[in-house]
Amino acid sequence: GIQVEQSPPDLILQEGANSTLRCNFSDSVNNLQWFHQNPWGQLINLFYIPSGTKQNGRLSATTVATERYSLLYISSSQTTDSGVYFCAVLANSNSGYALNFGKGTSLLVTP
Amino acid sequence: KAGVTQTPRYLIKTRGQQVTLSCSPISGHRSVSWYQQTPGQGLQFLFEYFSETQRNKGNFPGRFSGRQFSNSRSEMNVSTLELGDSALYLCASSLLQGSTEAFFGQGTRLTVV
C-alpha cells in the first residue's frame, strides 16, 4: 500500500514561532488531508488539499502532487496549537475509501 | 448540520466479550469508514461501507466486522475481545467514495481488561 511519512516526529516551539510540517507519500493520490488531533482524540479537519495551496488564518498548506509531498505551515504559533498533526492520503484506487495515515507530528508550543 | 456521532464514547469490556460500536454519519453522506488508533500501530484502516456494502477491508482478523444500514448509519462489532483490542476507534464519513473530504467523529475509547 501507499506509504506516508511525516517529519519531524516531534517539535517543540515557543509561542510566536513559525513551523513547517512535512508529509511525503509514495504514490499518486486522489485525496490528501491534514488533521489536528485534539486532547480528546477527535481528528479536526485542517485542510483537504490533494494539490495546490490553501490558507486558513495562521495555517496554510501546499501539496505538490507531482513530487509527492505536502507541507503544513503554522505561523505565530499559540499554545492551543499543541497536539498531534496527521497527514492522510487516499491512493488512486477503485477499491473503496481507505485513508492511509502518517505517524503524525507531535507539536508542543510553550508559553 | 450535525457532525459525525459515535456512541458510546467510552467502554470497558472484559477479555472474551464482544462489543458493538455505532457511527451516525453526516446527513447525506453515504460512505462510512472505521479506523483503529493505538500507540504502537498508529491509525489503521479497518473497513469502509458505501450503500450498505463493504467496499474495502483492512488487515484485521475476522473478529472485526461491520455493517451499514439503509440510513447510512454503521456499526462495527468485535467478538472475543483481546487485550490488544484496547484502542480508540474512529469513524469517518464522506459524501461519496473516492476523492472527497472525510470527517471524523469523536471516537470510542475501548478498554479491554
The largest β sheet of chain B comes out as: 7 strands, mixed
Quickly give the structural class of chain B. mainly beta
String of helices and strands of chain A? EEEEEEEEEEE
- Ranges of chain A with pLDDT <50 over ≥5 residues? none
> Radius of gyration of chain B from the CA trace?
13 Å
Strand content of chain A: over 45%
Largest sheet of chain A: 6 strands, mixed
How helical, in percent, are the residues of chain B? under 10%
- Give the strand content of chain B: over 45%
Number of alpha- plus pi-helical segments of chain A: 0
Average pLDDT for all residues of chain A? 93
**Helix content range of the residues of chain A, please?**
under 10%
Anisotropy-based shape of chain B: globular
Q: What distance lies between the first and last C-alpha atoms of chain A, to the nearest angstrom?
A: 40 Å
Shape of chain A: globular
> Which stretches of chain B are poorly predicted, pLDDT < 50 over at least 5 residues?
none
Question: What does it look like?
Answer:
The complex is a heterodimer of chains A (111) and B (113). Chain A is an all-beta fold. Helix content of chain A is 0%, strand content 59%. Chain A contains no helices and 11 strands. The termini of chain A are far apart. The mean pLDDT of chain A is 93. Helices cover 0% and strands 53% of the residues of chain B. In chain B, the strands form 2 sheets. In chain B, strands 2, 4, 5, 6, 9, 10 and 11 form a 7-stranded mixed beta sheet that branches. The model of chain B has no long low-confidence stretch (mean pLDDT 94). Classes of the chains: A mainly beta (111), B mainly beta (113). Chains A and B meet through strand 4, strand 5, strand 9 and strand 10 of A and strand 4, strand 5, strand 9 and strand 10 of B.
